[in-house]
User: Fold Phosphoenolpyruvate-protein phosphotransferase from anaerobic digester metagenome.
Amino acid sequence: MMLLDDPELIPPVREMIKNEKLSAAAALLQVIRKHESVFAGIEDEYIRARIADLHDIGAQILRLLKGCRRPKPCFEKPVIIFSHDLTPSETALFDPAMILAFVTEAGSRTSHTSIMARSLGIPAVVGAGEGILARVKTGDRVIVDGDEGLVILRPSPEILASYRERQEQEKKRRERLAAYRTRPALTRDGHRVVVAGNMGCRGDLERLLEHGAEGIGLFRTEFLYMEKERPPSEEEQLALYLEVVRKMNGRPVIIRTLDVGGDKEIPYLNLPPEQNPFLGYRAVRLYFERPEIYKPQLRAILRASCSGPLKIMFPMISSLEEVRRGRAIIEEIKKELIKEGHSFAESIEIGVMIEIPSAALIADALAEEVDFFSIGTNDLVQYALAVDRTNEKVDHLASHYHPAVLKLIDMTVKAAHARGIPVGVCGEAAADSLFIPFLVGVGIEELSVAAAAVLSTKEVVGECTKEEAARLAAQLLQLKSAVEVKQALTAFFQKKSDSK
Assistant:
C-alpha cells in the first residue's frame, strides 16, 4: 500500500509519536487530515478525487492499528447506494438482500468493483460520471439499469411503466432459462461446451449450484484476503477449499492463486508504492519474493486436491520462466507435505491465465509446460489496447470486439490445441451473448461466467452449430475494426432470428 512508504506521510507520523507522545493512530489521523486539506485546495479534479482514496486507505490503517475489523454496512431496509467510488473490498461486504443496486461516479464496467457486483448479483452502474451524487437525494425513486448502464432519477410514470414491463419480460425469460439448469451446453449439432462459473465470494457457491454451473472455472481467492485484517491461514483456506470441492460433487474447480495488485488492494500486505500498479508488482510477480503470501495457499490447495478435481491456475503470466518457477515451487511444497505426512493428488493439473499479450504470443511454448489455459479477456483487452480498466474516460475504448483481441484469442487456442491442452475463457467476453459464437467457433472448450449468466450462456451456445460458428469466426478474423466485428455478429443473430 502506497501510504505506508510515503515519505510525506510516515516521517511526520513518527515525529508526532516521538515528540508529542501521541499514539500511532492519533498521529496518523492528524497527518491524514492535513493532507486532505492540501488536496482539497488543488484545482486538478483527478488529484482532488484522491481525497476519498486517502481517507479510505487511512481508515483501513487506523482499523489495523486499533485491532478493529471493517464494519459491514447495516441497513434497516433494502436500499440503492450512490457513492463517488467503491473499492472491491468494500463491495465484497455488501449483503445482496439489503442492497437493491449501487451507482458510482468513478470506475468502469470492467473494474473489479463491477465484477464483484455481478458476482453478488447486484445491479450496478459503475462510472456513471461526475455530478450524479449532486443530483440525487435520499428518498428519490431511481431506476438502475445495469444491463444498459443507465441511471434514471425520478422517472416519469411512462418510463416506470416501461421498466415494469421489462421486469415482467425478464421474469418470463428466467422461467424459460430454468430448463437449462440440469442440461449441458450443446450446440445444435451436439458439440459440448462446458459452462462453468466464476466464484468471487462465499455466497457465489450456492448461486452457481442453483444456476447449474458445470464447475468453477475461476475461483477468485482475493476475497479470502479482503474479508480479513490478516492473511487467511493454511487451515482456514483448506477448510473452504474442501467445502467447495464437496459441494461441487465431482465437478472441476479451478483455483486462481492470489491476484492482488492493480485495483485490488489488501492493506496489510504492505505492498510498495507504484506509479502504475496494473503494470507493476502484482499477482505471480509477488510470489517469488513473498513466500509467506503464496505458500500457505498452495499448501492448502494441494492438501484439498485429494478430495476432488481441483486445479491450480497462476495469474498474470508473462514469460516461460515464471511458469517454470511456479511449478518448481509446487514441487518443493509437495516434498514438504510428504515429509509432514499430508496426502495430495500427485497429478494435480496446473494452468495459467492468458491475459498479457506476451503470453498469447508465446502460447506455443507455455502450452508445453502446463495442462490448460484460461484466457482472461478483461485484462487481455486492457493490456492489448492500452486502456486502463478503472478509468471511465477511456472505458469506451475497451472492446473485446477489437480485431487484435480476436487474433490473440485465436492464436492462443491454436497453440494450445496443437499441444493437446484445453482452453477456457473468463471475463466479460465469456458471457457476451453476441460474442459467444466466435468463442465456440475458434474452439474454446469452456466458458466461465457469473452465476447470473450461466443459464443464458447455455442457451446461446445452443443457438448455432459448431460448423456455423467456425465459419463465422473465420469471417470475423478477416475484419478490420471492432465496429465491423460487432455488426457482423449482430447480422449473424438477426439472420437466425429471421429464419425462425
Residues 45-66 form the longest helix (22 residues). The CA atoms of residues 6 and 273 lie 8 Å apart. The radius of gyration is 23 Å.
